[in-house]
Amino acid sequence: LKRQTVRRRVLWDKTFLQSLNLYRGKSALQINPSPELALVFVSLAPAIPGMENRMPDKNGKKYQWEKKLTASFNFDGALEIAAAAAALAQGREDLVSGPDGNLPSCYRDPTKTGRDGNAKTIAFYRPKDQPKGPKIRYFLGITENSKDKQGSKIGISLEYSDLFKIARVMEEAALAILGWRKEIEERREPNGGGPPRNQPAKEKAEVF
What we know:
Blueprint: H1 2-18, E1 20-23, E2 27-34, E3 39-46, E4 69-73, H2 75-89, E5 105-108, E6 119-125, E7 138-145, E8 153-158, H3 160-188
Antiparallel strand pairs: 1-2, 2-3, 3-4, 5-6, 6-7, 7-8
């Protein structure tokens, strides 16, 4: 019982460390872990029209979380985002840019893993007009790819400090996912729903 209590406490501490919220005039970013699914969720929500450059009244809302776009990442996916954010934070675009010079992007189609929903593209972008001063900002965007090509797109501006935060949170989430997966496997084993103790579970694909 004592060991289980300590384990739960560690999970709660890691959950606190891996949560991140960034707020901008036009959008907001949330990164939240899911120990139950061994995934980490990245969500972007747009501001309510007319509230882009305003602060809400007391108990008022600024963002439309009901219209958020969410992407979920497993161990490998979380590390990919962490590595890209860390490289950009250090000004090393050369480490993550593709042959065409574009910054990292990820395309995921949930239907290929038997899930419902539209495919999404998650990518880092350069601003069209570079801001003056030494701090070059980037954008992180999530685009919903629908058949009628009218899918939603939400982006958020990021400064160097934001990139460091994202890199740290996603790296910690990736490491925690390994522990969460072990917990899930151990819970399944008594019911015969998991792999043998000496056989690793198959990696879960990202879900969107």
